[in-house]
Amino acid sequence: MNFIAMDFETANFQASSACSLAIALINNNQIIDTFYTLINPQQPFNRKNIAIHHISPKDVEDAPTFAQIWPHIAPLFDLNHLITAHNAAFDNRVLKATLTASNIKTPTYNCIDTLRTSRRFYPDLPNHKLNTVSQALNIDLKQHHNALFDTVACAEILLKTQAEYGWEQIQPLTKIVS
């Protein structure tokens, strides 16, 4: 299975306030590379967000803006690649809002949400939060709300679900995002 996992953290409650991003590249069912960066959202931080992910304004003051990062990752976001995220509606919204705020055209890509797949394939869990699903599948989520660790856990959730249920069962849950 080949796909790309992603996770954003935001500075505040605005979708356009991405302050960190992680991406994992999966090829032949193996995580072959990861990318993590802080992002200067050029927006104020909310203390509630800081309490969740522990990223502060000082941490990102010298970080690149999303517009500076995008040219390096843009080739991953097209119809030839499958993108996954846990609660993909959030990450897709952050990507779109951040691109729009940077006056960059939003790409069209295939996406699958591991929140949705876990609800379908593991309905007996008490909830389907990333940390709950990770624990149920014996995935080591080192630090929840750290974009890199969340991304790796998301990738491992999809890999374990595919190994257990097969791509034919999962594939109908993909959708095109634009």
From TrEMBL:
Pfam families xref list: RNase_T
Annotated keywords: Exonuclease, Hydrolase, Nuclease
Nuclease keyword on record: yes
Superkingdom of the source species: Bacteria
GO molecular function: exonuclease activity
Source organism (scientific name): Bombilactobacillus thymidiniphilus
InterPro entries, sorted: DnaQ (IPR006054), Ribonucl_H (IPR013520), RNaseH-like_sf (IPR012337), RNaseH_sf (IPR036397)
Record protein name field: 3'-5' exonuclease
Membrane-traversing stretches: none
NCBIfam families: dnaq
Domain Exonuclease positions: 2-167
